[in-house]
Write a structure and sequence with these properties.
The chain is α+β, with helices and mostly antiparallel strands and 151 residues long. The strands form 2 sheets. The protein has a 5-stranded antiparallel β-sheet with strand order 1-2-9-4-7. The chain has a 4-stranded antiparallel β-sheet with strand order 3-8-5-6, with no helix packed on it. The radius of gyration is 15 Å and the shape is globular. It is built from 6 helices and 9 strands; from the N terminus they run βαααββββββαββαα. The chain has one domain: Jelly Rolls. Helix 5 packs across helix 6. Helices cover 40% and strands 30% of the residues. A hairpin with a 3-residue loop joins strand 5 and strand 6. The structure holds adenosine-3',5'-cyclic-monophosphate. Adenosine-3',5'-cyclic-monophosphate binds next to strand 6, helix 4 and helix 6.
Length: 151
């Protein structure tokens, strides 16, 4: 995993990506610009794990490029692939909302670039935008439902 410089190009990319993600589209430019100052861009290699089920969660991720898989443990040895994520998708919200360990393992199927927001900044964005917070919570609830029915 490597940290990339977030230059003006990446920031305008982030604005474009976030405009395609319903959850961020509800942010006004003021809030989005504020959030952008806290965003870091990370680059991962194919096969690298971004987060592991059971670990403490301290960040939220939005996919700029690449494909990632979401999987959960099934018993002691096996794991089950639940979903694939690609550009415009995001993950890592559940552990932050619930203040609980990561519910799934996210691995890079291809090399990937991810925008990362630390929990304190994610929480500030939620606080300043109740509509966004509601949408995040309802997506987390839908994902939780899927997790319960797949583990
Ligand atoms: P978190 O529990 O913080 O870390 C693992 C993440 O996987 C979780 O947040 C969600 O963002 C994501 N996740 C869990 N279940 C699904 C699902 N069914 N589809 C897509 N993403 C999921």
């Amino acid at each position: 995993m490597k940290t990339l410089q977030t230059g003006d190009d990446e920031k305008s990319d982030f604005v474009k990506i976030t405009r395609k993600i319903n959850f961020f589209a509800s942010m006004n430019m003021g809030l989005l610009e504020k959030i952008l100052t806290y965003v870091t861009l990370y680059e991962y290699g194919a096969g690298e794990k971004v987060c592991r089920q059971g670990e403490k969660g301290d960040a939220f991720y939005a996919v700029k490029a690449g494909r990632l898989t979401v999987s959960v443990k099934k018993g002691l040895i096996f794991s089950k692939k639940l979903a694939e994520l690609g550009p415009g998708d995001f993950f890592g919200e559940m552990a932050l909302i619930d203040r609980a360990p990561r519910n799934a393992t996210i691995a890079c199927e291809t090399a990937a670039k991810l925008f990362v927001l630390l929990s304190e900044h994610f929480e500030a964005a939620m606080r300043e935008n109740p509509k966004l917070a509601e949408e995040m919570k309802s997506l987390a609830a839908a994902r939780r439902f899927e997790l319960i029915h797949n583990t």
